[in-house]
């Protein structure tokens, strides 16, 4: 089957502005998830450091077709930060999505978070959101999608009294009108450090199958920052101090770039935690959901501590 896919690549090489001569090789990567395991083929030409082409292979078409459509929309608006979609179709017994490779390694801070690195990272997220921001009125189902349903799902999940009470209080406090007052900014949906590639000061975002499921500003930036913090520990007292000190400025810069009030982060933080949990749990990622629940439990027990990290305005 590799030969069939390689022949397809060579047939399209000129159209895709790829080398038509020289040796091509494929690296096979199995990407396991409980709900959508797939195979990735990464195509290297000669002595390339990074793949020129990536082929995602699934048995079922729905997830891959959705990602191809999402990527097509995003690349048209924000090509600076995303791979270029090339082809979607059925080949070799699999549904295949072909896209350009992008240079970069999975971002891992490793405890070292320079202001320049974090600032450029936040600017990339804000740039994508500014480019993909919608002008239409929010859909009438928005409140259910991103407030009531995720909060109720989170409240039912575990035994924490603080989580159940916090979810109920938040749902009662937040109205549909207040949610719909926020601009429609389609989010990546699962932007953690593993979906961010960096190289030579440039950033690229991959894995867009969840794009648009959540459309509240701040969400992607918050999930990304939380993912970096949770690499150090589940509680704020365990988090990297260098990173923590820089977060309020990153939040403020993002707010300026999108033209939204930074004070909104007080509402967006718990909604982000609930939506991220709900998305992972709904997708069958039990281990991640259980880890997130423990972090969320700490948030609802001591919300001022968390909010101080993300805004710098409140004190523990």
Could you name the key traits of this structure?
single chain; 316 residues; alpha+beta; three-stranded antiparallel β-sheet; 11 helices; 8 strands; 48% helix
Folded structure, characterized:
The chain has helices at 2-12, 62-77, 115-132, 142-157, 161-173, 176-180, 219-230, 241-258, 265-282, 286-301, 303-311, and strands at 24-31, 38-45, 53-58, 85-91, 94-100, 105-106, 196-199, 202-205. With 316 residues, it is α+β, with helices and mostly antiparallel strands. Strands 1-2-3-5-4 form a five-stranded antiparallel beta sheet, with helices on both faces. The chain has a three-stranded antiparallel beta sheet with strand order 6-7-8, covered by helices on one side. Strand 2 (38-45) and strand 3 form a beta hairpin. The chain is globular and about 60 Å long. The N and C termini lie far apart (58 Å). 34% of the residues are buried.
In short:
This protein is an alpha+beta fold and 316 residues long.
> If strands are numbered along the chain, what order do they take across the biggest sheet?
1-2-3-5-4
Give the SSE order as H and E letters: HEEEHEEEHHHHEEHHHHH
How does the major sheet shape up? 5 strands, antiparallel
Q: Class by helix and strand content?
A: alpha+beta
The number of helical segments is: 11
Principal-axes geometry comes out as: globular
Note the quaternary state here.
single chain
- How confident overall, as mean pLDDT? 92
Query: Which spans have pLDDT < 50 for at least 5 consecutive residues?
Result: none
Distance between the termini: 58 Å
Count of distinct strands: 8
Tell me the fraction of residues in β-strands, as a range. 5-15%
């Amino acid at each position: 089957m590799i030969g069939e896919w390689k022949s397809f690549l060579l047939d399209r090489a000129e159209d895709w502005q790829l080398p038509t001569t020289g040796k091509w090789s494929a690296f096979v990567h199995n990407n396991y998830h409980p709900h959508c395991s797939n195979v990735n083929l990464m195509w290297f030409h000669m002595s390339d450091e990074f793949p020129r082409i990536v082929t995602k292979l699934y048995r079922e078409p729905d997830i891959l077709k959705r990602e191809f459509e999402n990527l097509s929309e995003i690349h048209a608006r924000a090509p600076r930060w995303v791979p270029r979609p090339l082809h979607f179709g059925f080949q070799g017994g699999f549904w295949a999505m072909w896209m350009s490779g992008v240079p970069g390694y999975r971002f891992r801070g490793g405890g070292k978070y320079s202001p320049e690195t974090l600032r450029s990272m936040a600017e990339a997220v804000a740039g994508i959101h500014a480019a993909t921001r919608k002008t239409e009125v929010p859909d009438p189902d928005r409140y259910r999608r991103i407030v009531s349903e995720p909060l109720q799902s989170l409240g039912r999940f575990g035994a924490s009294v603080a989580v159940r009470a916090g979810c109920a209080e938040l749902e009662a406090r937040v109205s549909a009108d207040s949610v719909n007052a926020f601009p429609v900014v389609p989010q990546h949906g699962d932007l953690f450090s593993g979906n961010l590639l960096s190289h030579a000061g440039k950033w690229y975002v991959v894995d867009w199958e969840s794009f648009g499921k959540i459309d509240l500003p701040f969400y992607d930036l918050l999930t990304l920052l939380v993912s970096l913090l949770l690499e150090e520990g589940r509680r704020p007292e365990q988090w990297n101090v260098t990173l923590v000190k820089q977060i309020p400025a990153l939040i403020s810069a993002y707010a300026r770039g999108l033209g939204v009030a930074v004070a909104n982060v007080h509402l967006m933080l718990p909604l982000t935690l609930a939506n991220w949990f709900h998305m992972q749990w709904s997708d069958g990622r039990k281990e991640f959901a259980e880890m997130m629940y423990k972090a969320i439990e700490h948030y609802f027990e001591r919300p001022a501590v968390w909010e101080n990290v993300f805004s710098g305005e409140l004190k523990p």
